[in-house]
Amino acid sequence: MANTHSTQPPTSKDIAHKTSWVVFIIEAILVVFTAPYRRTFKLYTWRPLRDIRAAGNDRKLLISRVKDWKADKYQELQSVQVAASFCAGATLATLSWSKFPNPIWVADALWFSSLICSIWAVICSIQTKSILNDLPSKDELNASLPESELQRMRRVILRYKKSPGINHWLMLFIWQFPSMTMSYAWCTFLSGLTVYISTPFIRREPWSNESKISIAYLSVGIVGLFTYAFSSGFVYAGEKDFERSLASTRVNTDDMEAASANSPASGSPAAEPTQGADNGSAVDHLRSRGLLHGPAEPRSRSDSGRVRRELLY
To answer: Which InterPro entries match (predicted)?
Structure first.
């Protein structure tokens, strides 16, 4: 009788291990392709859509997040149109250069790629704005928004009803496409310019004035590249600190709310005047030393977060 090897069904541990590897590979590919515009992609597309998905059927939270995201998306698309138009103009100006009689074809290929990316960035940003215009206006995004309009708005943004599918991820790609093409346009333009200026070294031509121009260009370009890399690292570190600060503030707020709910009612009236007096004396002390000017205005947590996010740009 022949020996038969019975195959064991995969366990949950094996499935989780394979899934983790798939997720890691997808995230690595996503990081590589979104590297030129990682922060824009994260703040204006990935994180807002994730928060809108997480809002679920909470009307108040969903309307608030859509209102903020719509305003931010408009600003992003306007910036994309300006930057892409400027890049297209710069590319058209460089295509007519004839300084070198036999330039490297890679430079022209990169410049033409930059031109087409710029054109698509402008066109797709206009198309994306038309999708945003189909959403309820800022004045309509309030508690009186009909349920049917709320569900339609959610479907337009996320493109799914129950769970995310292919249409949802395609829509996410569409939302970020203008920023992607604009970023690629600038990357290919600078790459083509670098290849074009470096033609004397690539072709190993004799020393000439073009070689000196190449050295000057590469020196300034390397300094700018290192500065951009360091500033990106500082921005990333500041972003992580900001996220940890928000998480800590949220935890402290929850603890204070829980403590106030569990505290006896008799002690609260006596504590309020003391706290107000301490705060008032501290404010008077700062004003007397010239360290505080004008009346203090309360600011909500969401407003401070928006101001901080704008300062990071």
So the answer is: DUF6535 (IPR045338)
- 38 contacts 47 by C-beta, under 8 angstroms: no
Q: What is the pTM of this model?
A: 0.71
Domain ranges of the chain: 27-197, 207-252+307-313
DSSP 179-195: HHHHHHHHHHHHHHHHH
Burial class (CB in 10 A: 0-12, 13-18, 19+), 118: buried
Q: What is the pLDDT of residues 3-24, one digit of tens each?
A: 545 556 556 555 555 567 777 8
Contact 192, 110 (CB under 8 A): yes
Summarised one tens digit per residue, pLDDT across range 251-280 is 666 566 566 666 554 444 444 444 444 445
- Give 285's contacts (C-beta < 8 A, 6+ positions apart): none
Asked if 110 contacts 195 with a C-beta cutoff of 8 angstroms, the reply is yes
Number of residues written out for the chain: 313
